[in-house]
Amino acid sequence: MTDMIDGTTASVMGATPGSAPSESTARPHAPGAFTLPRLDDTAASGGIAEHVYQALFRMVMESDIAPGSRMVIDKIASDLGVSSTPVREALARLETQGLVTKERLRGYFATEIMGSAEFADLWEFRRLLEPHAARQAAMGIDRTGKVRLQYEVDSIRQVRLQDDYASMTTFREHDHRLHDLIFEFAGNAHLRKAMDQAHVYNRMFRIRFAPIDGYHAIQEHADIARAIIKGDADAADAAMREHLELAYHRIEPYLQ
Q1: Residues 132-152 pLDDT 10s
Q2: Which of 59, 113, 127, 236 has the CA that lies 20 to 30 A from 145?
Q3: Last residue of a domain, one of 61, 92, 110
Q4: What predicted TM-score, i.e. pTM, was given to this entire model?
Q5: Tally of CB atoms within 10 A around 2
C-alpha cells in the first residue's frame, strides 16, 4: 500500500503550498456586551432551537458571554425573540458540553476558561490515554479505517484558515474528528467515552491562540496518521507523544 499521507499540501491558514504561514499573534479574550443576535426568518428556517444553541455556543466560545457570568433565561429569550423553551434546551446542551454550569436556585453560568493548573491536569489525562490509543489504532486499523483517516488529513489541507470564528470552528471540528477516529480505531469504547466526557476540544478552543499554532498541529496530525496507516505502533505512539508535548508548549503561554 502506498503512503497515503504524502502529497501536495494545499493552502492552510494562509499558507501557500509548500510553505508555512507567517507568524501572527492570537487575539486576546475581550468579552463584549452580552448582546444576542435576534432571530430572523433565515435562522428560523433552520430551526429555532438550533439557532438559539448555535448563538449561545458561539458567544460562550468567543467569550462574548464573559466566563463566569450568569445567563438569565428570560433575558436571552427576550433578546432573541423566542420563548424560554428553546433557551432552556440550548443551555442544557451546553451544560453537557462543559460550557455552562447550573447552580441550584441561581440558574446557569458560563464556565470559566481553564487556568494553568487545570490545563496541566487535562494534558496529563491526554498523555495517559492518547499515545496508547494511537498505538492500538496502528495495530488494529483496517483498510476502510485507513481511507477514513487519510480523508480527514486531506480534507483540512484543502481549507484556508484565518484568525476568525469560522476558521477556528473548522479547525476545532477537524481536531475533534481526527482524535476521535484514533480512539475509534483503537477499539476501546471506554477510552473513547472518557475522552469525550472530558470535553477536551470545547475547553481547549476557548483559549484563543494564533493560526500558526493550528498549522503546526495539522502537520503533526499528518505524522500521526502516517504511522497509524503504516501499522507502525511504536511510531504512532511516539508521534502522538510529540504532538501532545508540542501542543502543550504552544497553548500554555496563552493561558490567563
Answers
A1: 999 999 999 999 999 999 999
A2: 127
A3: 110
A4: 0.77
A5: 7
